[in-house]
Every structure is written in structure tokens, then in C-alpha cells.
Amino acid sequence: MLVRLRPGLSRVWRGPQTVQIGLTPGRAAVLDGLTPDDARLIEQLNLGLDVRELDAGHVPPGPARGREILGLLAEAGVLLTTRTGRAALARLGTARERLAPDAAAWALSDPDHGDAWQLVEARAGRRVHVVGTGRTANALATCLAAAGVDVSAEQAGTVTPADVCPLGPSQEDLGRSRQQVTGWRIAQARDLPSSRRDASRLPDVVVLVSRSAADAAASVDLHAREIAHLSVVSREADIIVGPLVRPGHGPCLHCLDLHRCDRDPRWAHVLAQLLSAEHQRSAVSTEEVSLSAIAGALAALQVLAELDGRTSPAALGATLEVELPDGLVCHRPWPTHPACACSTLPTRLPPAGLLAGSPVVPPFAPPAPGRAPGARSPHRPATMDT
Ligand SMILES: [Zn+2]
């Protein structure tokens, strides 16, 4: 058996007899009382060691002491004892070298995945469909493609200056079809053998990227087909990633609207206007370039967590809200709404304007103080916090 220290872990000597392996709290180990022979074993482990050589007494400090050190390192989670087979690595083709940092990072993030190459390789067989335009959508699609995922995008219209960003179209793409340009970007980022693609099967995850508010009606078919989906909404100075919906398990997009209706009786009216074609067409893009890059990458991580089979991605039943100026992330969990049948039956949602059974009214405009007799003070709509 070949063993080695996990790739990517820094190895520093805190003194002649003390080594520290790893820098991240909770994932690092310190071994004290080491002899010079022990130190040679540590150096050997950085390159890889055949345990049979150790047991045969060919490697210092000998079988008993060596096994004791290996046991301590394994217990601390810094020793790699399994390796992905050559067949899986070969399937990554020339992308293997580019994906080496990803495998090293994911192996450190979750030691249960061994050297993580199997995890990375499995993503090449997973499909994600991204619906929506803008910088966040482009950053998300490009990140997923670079991670090896088979990504398709659904984008209307042509590239505008507001689409241009480091992870999306460039100035040279202005006026070209968004769908075509994003397809090129995806192909450029995902340098895997084409034999790994299978465009005929349904996507494993669909990402719905929208402006101002999520349209729960867009997720009805995904519920019926039991396809996991992630909502991403760019608002004015923040972007909301989530919830990640697993149909039949936890809150859906309709649940969130029902919660918002509970907190804000006018939410149905507000939502109908935000989702109207007129608003979507006329709203000025506020996808700040750094914020959209953060949100796109954050959304990509949520999708990868779902594809990798993690039990509880952060956006599962929750929204991750990133806002200017600092780009910090707020995690907001949401329960399933008791009036929503999403946990028991395929969801059939009414049009957004009918959520509260009321007609659309003019845009929300808080009255100014003293504007009219009996007018209330300006206030923040409850749903604008979510
Ligand atoms: Zn629901």
C-alpha cells in the first residue's frame, strides 16, 4: 500500500523535534518528540511511501516506530491511504493537470473522498442547465464548466455592455448572440474529452437565474420531473443564492412566496410587477462585477455540493444573501410553508399575480413623512429583507 501526506498540506517545522502539517484549524496536525529518523520518514511521506518497504525495515525509523507515526497521522486525517485508479484519471484526459488543484482542495475539504479524483471525475458525467442572462449567470456557468460539469445555458438576446465581465462575454462579443457566446465560453472552460458529454439526458440540476424576484411558476415543471433546482436572484445591491430545492424535500420557491405573503400582505402585488415583462425589460442592470463573480461562484459551489451528493448544501432550504459593499454572506434558513403541498404532491402553482387572489396594483411607494394627513412613516417592506 502506498501512503502519502495529503497533497496541498503545508509542512513546517516548529522546532527540531516538532512538525506541523497543514495550516487550517481543525484540519492540521502537530507531531512532537520526533527523532532525526522520524523526520526523514515525514519527508518521505511527502513524496509517497510503500508501507511494505517500511514493514521490511528498509525505511527509517523501522517498522514499529514508523507504524506508530503513520497511525498518528492517519488519526489526524492528514495521511492519504487510498488512490483513484488510472482508468478514472485517464477519462479526464488533458484536463487532469488543470484540475489537480481542485482535487487537492476537495480532498482536504472532505477526507472521506480520499484523493478526490473520483469526485472530480464523476462531475464530468453530470449535467446542469442554467436559465437566465447576466454576469451572475455567466460566472456560474463558467465556474461549473471549469469544474468539469457538463453545462448548458439558455439565454435570450444579444450581448450588451452590462453582460461583459471576466467570467463572461468580452467587449469583442458585443452584439453577438448571448446563447452562442456563452456556449463558446463553456466549451473553452471545460476542456474534457467530448465523449464524456451526454446531451440527451435530463439535467441533474437546473439553475434559475432571474432579476428582482424568483418566478416560482418557472419551477413547476422541475417539481413534476423531480429535478433539483437552485434559484439565483440579482436585486439592486445584493444577490440571493438559493434556495436549493429538492422536490418533495424541504421548502420550494412557492413556500418562500407564501412566507413572504404572511409577512407582507402586498407581496403578491409587488411580485407580479417585478416579474412582469415590462419590469424585466426596463430594469437597469445592477450586477456589480465583483458581487456577481462572488454570487456566481457561490451558486456554483451549491450546485457542486448537490452533484457530489452532499447531505446538506448550505443553500438547501435556505437563501445565501451577498450584498455590497463587503460581499459578506448571510445564511437565512426557510421552513416548508404549511399551506404548500410541495412535500406531498407535485406542485401546481398559480400565476404569481394570483398568489393572494388580488389584482395587480401600482408599484410600491412608501409615503413620505407628513405627505398627507394620516400618512405613515416610511418603512422597509418586510419581504425586502428576504
Ligand atoms: Zn413548497
Overall description:
By secondary structure, this protein is of the alpha+beta class. Helices cover 34% and strands 17% of the residues. It has 3 domains: 2-80, Outer Surface Protein A, domain 3, CATH 3.90.930; 86-121, no CATH class; 126-354, Rossmann fold (3-Layer(aba) Sandwich), CATH 3.40.50. α7 runs parallel beside α8 (178-189) and α7 (135-146) packs across α13 (289-307). The protein is elongated and about 75 Å long. Residues 346-377 have low confidence and may be disordered. It binds zinc ion (ZN). Residues 251-252, 254-255, 336-337, 340, 342 line the site of zinc ion (ZN).
Compact description:
By secondary structure, the protein is of the alpha+beta class. Helices cover 34% and strands 17% of the residues.
List keywords for this structure.
single chain; 386 residues; alpha+beta; Outer Surface Protein A, domain 3; Rossmann fold; 3 domains; seven-stranded mixed sheet; three-stranded antiparallel sheet; 34% helix; binds zinc ion
Any idea of the CATH class of the largest domain? Answer: Alpha Beta
H/E element sequence: EEEEHEHHEHHHEHEHEHEEHHHHEE
Name the shape in a single word: elongated
Tally of contiguous helical segments = 13
- Radius of gyration, in angstroms, nearest whole number: 26 Å
Oligomer: single chain
Overall structural domain count: 3
Strand arrangement in the largest pleated sheet: 8-7-9-10-11-12-13
* Distinct small molecules: zinc ion
Name the helicity range.
25-40%
Name the CATH superfamily assignment of the largest domain: NAD(P)-binding Rossmann-like Domain
Note the beta-strand portion: 15-25%
User: Biggest sheet, open or closed, and with what strands and sense?
Assistant: 7 strands, mixed
CATH architecture designation of the largest domain: 3-Layer(aba) Sandwich
Distance between the termini: 52 Å
Integer average pLDDT:
87
User: Low-confidence parts, pLDDT < 50 over ≥5 residues?
Assistant: 346-377
CATH topology of the largest domain: Rossmann fold
The secondary structure category is alpha+beta
Number of DSSP-assigned strands: 13
